[in-house]
Amino acid sequence: MTRVGLRRTIPVRDQSAAAAVRAATRALGLQLGFTAARIGEMDLVVTEACTNAVVHGGGGEALVVREGDTVRFTVFDQGPGMDNVERCARDGYSTADTPGHGLGTVLRLSTESDIASAPERGTVVDTVLAASARTPRTNAVYDVGGLVRAYPGEAHSGDAIAYRTITPERFTVCVVDGLGHGRRAAEIADQAIAAFDAVEDPEPESTVRALHEALRGARGAVVGVATFSGEDVRICTLGNIDVFVLGAERDTRIAATHGTAGSALRRLKTDTIAFGADDVCVLHSDGVRQIREPRSFPGLIARRASTIAALYYRDHERRTDDASIAVIRRGMS
């Protein structure tokens, strides 16, 4: 089982903010044993991406988390955006009287990177930083973008995301929102994720029932489970976890359910939805406002899962709760 790490969020309001983001990524690089030279390259990626967010985007926010043996660094803004990312990434090209090396540096020194931008829609720069920019990445059957953030000012989050590969073609993901926030809510989320990990045959409805039993007598949580197999995805929720699937020609939204794992188990229902090669499935807690226009960002469905998650989070997060969003699609080369 893989559990999505808690993102550290850092405001990027002016160019001095890059120092705090560098310190956060550098600390994770040191934990992972990266060389001094590689940490220097990470510093350049962070500095250039944050500078672009301030100079061209008017400021934004950076997200930092350890993912296995890598560091994921994401920065976004809601500025004027770019109409041609490829042109803007060429060394020497600038619209703000700067040397024009920023995006090119990010692309060269990141192990993986994805830049989403559109006129008047801002920019998201999402990167993976491994021990080397040339570290080969494993092509997984499913591409997962998970983002978990604590209530502002809290060190713990009651939201959690975990996923498991059952067989090469069978995959399951669980999103949990423990009631409340802070340490007590985080303990509930931990219990739920442990129960998810213990389920031997993670069909969505039976998994939700197992989580309900594991949380009996506790404060409770709302949960959502999706299992991908073959050409479809089966989904079961208990409580207000929002779920929808974007396809090339149709969008399908799962109706919200009522109930709370641990205390109020209503009648459960499993929805089965076709899930094609280019489809995208999204599950999120109510720390992210309902995404009423999921295709509003141009070209979104073609992006990597982590970039889609960051875009939705940027545009729909609530600052009054923990937040979590999981995006799943089939692996991209």
How would you portray this structure in words?
The chain has helices at 17-31, 36-55, 85-88, 102-109, 183-198, 204-214, 305-316, and strands at residues 2-3, 8-12, 60-67, 70-77, 112-117, 123-129, 142-149, 159-167, 170-178, 221-229, 232-238, 242-246, 251-254, 271-274, 280-284, 323-330. The protein is of the alpha+beta class. The chain has 7 helices and 16 strands. α1 (17-31) runs antiparallel to α2 (36-55) and α5 crosses α6 (204-214). Helix content is 26%, strand content 31%.
Q: What is the share of helical residues?
A: 25-40%
Query: Between the first and last Cα atoms, what is the distance in angstroms?
Result: 23 Å
Strand line-up of the largest beta sheet: 1-8-9-10-11-14
Question: What structural category do the secondary elements indicate?
Answer: alpha+beta
The gyration radius over C-alpha positions equals 20 Å
Order of helices and strands: EEHHEEHHEEEEEHHEEEEEEHE
What is the subunit organization of this protein?
single chain
Mean pLDDT over the residues:
92
Q: What descriptors fit this protein?
A:
single chain; 333 residues; alpha+beta; 6-stranded antiparallel β-sheet
Brief digest:
The chain is 26% helix and 31% strand. It is an alpha+beta fold and 333 residues long.
Can you lay out the helices and strands and say which pair or pack?
Blueprint: E1 2-3, E2 8-12, H1 17-31, H2 36-55, E3 60-67, E4 70-77, H3 85-88, H4 102-109, E5 112-117, E6 123-129, E7 142-149, E8 159-167, E9 170-178, H5 183-198, H6 204-214, E10 221-229, E11 232-238, E12 242-246, E13 251-254, E14 271-274, E15 280-284, H7 305-316, E16 323-330
Antiparallel strand pairs: 1-8, 2-3, 3-4, 4-6, 5-6, 7-16, 8-9, 9-10, 10-11, 11-14, 12-13, 12-15, 15-16
